[in-house]
Automatic annotation (TrEMBL):
Residues 562-591 are annotated as: Disordered. This is ABC transporter ATP-binding protein, AmfA. It is a multi-pass membrane protein. Residues 26-287 form the ABC transmembrane type-1 domain. InterPro entries: AAA+_ATPase, ABC1_TM_dom, ABC1_TM_sf, ABC_transporter-like_ATP-bd, ABC_transporter-like_CS, P-loop_NTPase, Type_1_exporter. The lineage of its organism: Bacteria, Bacillati, Actinomycetota, Actinomycetes, Kitasatosporales. GO terms for molecular function: ABC-type transporter activity; ATP binding; ATP hydrolysis activity; ATPase-coupled lipid transmembrane transporter activity. It is found in: Cell membrane. The chain crosses the membrane at residues 127-148, 154-174. It comes from the Bacteria. It comes from Streptantibioticus cattleyicolor (strain ATCC 35852 / DSM 46488 / JCM 4925 / NBRC 14057 / NRRL 8057) (Streptomyces cattleya). Keywords: ATP-binding, Membrane, Nucleotide-binding, Transmembrane, Transmembrane helix. Residues 332-557 form the ABC transporter domain.
Amino acid sequence: MDGGRFAGVREGWGFFRRRRGVVGRLAAWSVLEAGQTLLAGYAPARALDAGFLAHRPLTGLGWLGVAAVAVPAGAYGTGRVYRNVAALAEPLRDALVRRVVARGVRRAEAAAVSRLTHQVEIARDTFAGLVLLARSFVFTAVGALTGLLLLDPLLLVVVVPPLAVGLALFAATLRPMARRQEAFLTADEAIAAELALVSGGLRDVTAAGAEDRVAAGAGALIDAEYRAARRLAWWSVVRAAAPVAGGRLPVVLLLALAPWLTGRGVTPGALVGALTYLTQSLQPALQTLTHGLGTGGSRLTVVLRRLLRGADASPRPAPVPPGGPPPGAPAVELRGVTFGYGPGAEPVVRGLDLTVPHGGHLAVVGPSGVGKSTVTALIAGVLVADAGRIRVCGAPPGPPAHRVLIPQEAYVFTGTVRDNLGYLREDPVADDEARAAAEAVGAARLIDRLGGLDAPLDPAALAAGERQLIALARAFLSPAPVVLLDEATCHLDPAAEARAERAFAARPGGTLIVVAHRIASARRAGRVLVMDGPHTDCGTHQELLDRSARYRDLVGAWDGRADAEAGAEEEAPEAATGTERVGRSHPAGPL
Ligand SMILES: Nc1ncnc2c1ncn2[C@@H]1O[C@H](COP(=O)(O)OP(=O)(O)OP(=O)(O)O)[C@@H](O)[C@H]1O
């Protein structure tokens, strides 16, 4: 069993543990059903032995009446059971929706969200069905076995061994069948994807004379699905043996061993009662369990694995080579990029060329509204360029594995501090890693004050600067090599901002692009991109001071503020966890 599966089992166990109350109520109402099952065999047995065979018909009728009264009582219990199943299934759906929507939003894929939320509905319905089935089997079995025990313990000796064999057989098929089912679905999806591709390009296939090659490719996929279907069918046969062994074999044994049983004091009524338990309760319950839990269990396993591990049909982001972009490819590259907010609108970015090397640190500066955020959104793949070419880590922008964009208004959600920090990670964040990241960006003291990594985090109770610190620590922990800070430190004081920016600049294999709103921020960067309407210039701080009038203007406007702030940067290494800066970052100057 791999770590992921362990985590899944732990998570599933935790889900039920946190809802002990609902599970307890579910069990309590199920007891009514179990009582009905118990009486379904016990009452006819007593009616026969103590009533009709003993020439006491009224007693016999009385016992049958008891069995009849148990039916509405059991039905009432079943009704209450449904309510409690809903109380289990709905939170599961909510939890799954939160995860898949977050991932879809992270990938900026509306289609993925819609597809995943549909899968969540399937998971919720299947889960509710499985809870009902499994619970019904357990309580029916408990009722029937208790009844057999009360009638005569010898009956258990005949019934229990084949029943146990049937259940063991069923349990043994669960995991292999889930795997085969997933393999079959994957093969089926591969054929669907191939056919969609081929049917859209039939004309090209014919024009290029590639019919044989395309047919061979599709044929290989069909063969793969055929093989997957055969393996699945083989396991279905093994599974079909489970209800035969567990449900039908005990009936045969009971009939065959009837003389032996009656010779040891088992009454005719007890035999009839035992047969009733087997044919009316255990056999149908086992049949439903193997069929329902088999099919539903495999489906739920497959859907959950896809939902929780992100293996949905949408294309996975290209993996990022550890340590950043492939050798030779810059971290970020823009060639002739033009973008406007609408077909008739004046472009905000026009013919922009920009190269940020692996490990580089770039500050983007310019007057308010000139297009700084637009450039970061284009690099992040949140906006799509009208013309030109953008590459992040050598690939088209978009995959969150390549970049993380932190905007001015930091997004923090209700959950634990750890949930918030690990939000951009597929794998769990270790304590020391989280602490190191928090320490690096200056969020450690805040996290201590909140009560540590597992403390609950209430977004409304945090100041804007505190939310930014959490978002910064989260970005620091993300595996993305390119970090885009779009005024992501604007609510921090200069010292806290400097600390965070230095931490990102020093992040191993990391590339940093900062929309700067302070002179110090631009000075810290190796290179500065000055945006001035359609004109841009890129160089070092000193080069731009020498050749860019716009940059000199900006620096002039910043200078007064910078002088006042410079002292603070030296004095307060982690000063500003709660500091609020007012509104947009550059209210007075041209920035
Ligand atoms: N969603 C949008 N739809 C239409 N126009 C937009 C949109 N977002 C931004 N703009 C416009 O595009 C221009 C560039 O905006 P952008 O936010 O990129 O500038 P900025 O340099 O980051 O500004 P600031 O420093 O104030 O954040 C502005 O004129 C802005 O009004």
